[in-house]
Design goal:
five-stranded antiparallel β-sheet; alpha+beta; 15% strand; single chain; 10 strands; three-stranded mixed β-sheet
Amino acid sequence: MPHKKFIRAGLQVRAVKIQFNSIRVKLTLFYTVILVLLLIVFHFIAYMLLSHGLRSDMYDSIEAYAETAKDTIIINGEDNLLDILTELNNSSNNEVFIYDVYTGEVSSSFPVIDDVRSTLSRIATVGTSTYTQGLTIREIQTYLHITPLDINTEPGKMLVVTRSADYIYNTVDSYKQWLYMAIPFVIIFGLVSGYLLSGYFLRQVKAINITAEKIDPANIIDRIPVKSNDELGRLSKTLNSLFDRIYGYSERQKQFTADASHDLRSPLTIIKAEAEVALMKKRKPEEYIAAMQKIENAADVMNDMVDGLLTLASMDSEPDVSAVADFDLSACMGNAVYDWQSPFENKGVQLIRDIAPGIVVRGDSAHFRRIVDTLVKTAFEHPPAGGSVTCSLELKGKDIVITVADSGTGIAAEHLPHIFDRFYRV
């Protein structure tokens, strides 16, 4: 029992390996990787735009407040400056200072932090234009805005406004945290959706695989169900067309084998029967001669049939392209029909020839001669004495038409579709 469990576990591991090497899994992983990369690129761009937008809003807001505070101070004068600064600091989340560039004195409604004082002494000079800078004060991210106060009596005075920028960094950090939390879910979503989507789009490949496994080489009747009209659907149609041709060829081969076996059986039966009858008892020399003549005739028939089979086999396997050349079809057909002149006269059947001269084609002249012989031989066997057989060759537009018509009983309509099948007999 433990041995069986071990075998099952081993088979499962092997199945996982095969599944991992499948196109479906590869497409799923590729889809997931692309999805994650797109997510990272998208969120990086969104992160940069969000950070830039928040900082721009901060710059605009602090600059607008600085202009409002400056107007308030100028309008109310400097007599009650500390009261004005106190009111400005209490009415907003900004801190407002007045910095004297010449003396380094900082006026404020609350104690001035050394970080602010040192920063002001470093960057503020007479004639300093509007200036905004980010700095860290007491471990708090802060934006500092400096602009001239524009008081004619005291030109060295600068208005300083500071505002905490923690909410900007908190917002950006929260966005990054959401991004980090979203990546695992995106990976899971990509794996699941990619696996399902690849399975949906590869269902045609599965149908091809199932059909290929079910097909019996001896009887190719199964066909691939076409579920789409994309590249895989067109491939399935092409394979179905190939299966149709192979099936048709296989059926013709089966019919050919059956017909050839039937036709070969007749002369063999005659040879065996004549030999058995001749050997049953002692007979006169004339009877032996007659039996041997029948056996010879049957052997000739079988020999002709075997030659025909060999010819057909050689043509099916590898046609002799070396025998292909331009030849006079009119002369070839004329010679073939002329050879039958005496047999027709002996039978009392009129042989009529209507062969247009000078028709040249490209092919194997021996095969054309054999075709004409077969047609004329078949026509020779059917009309009674007093009948006629007409052999004609004519050019109709781009087509060359060979006609062998006899005055016999003709061929029934149900046999016409099969008269060119090998070994078919009416």
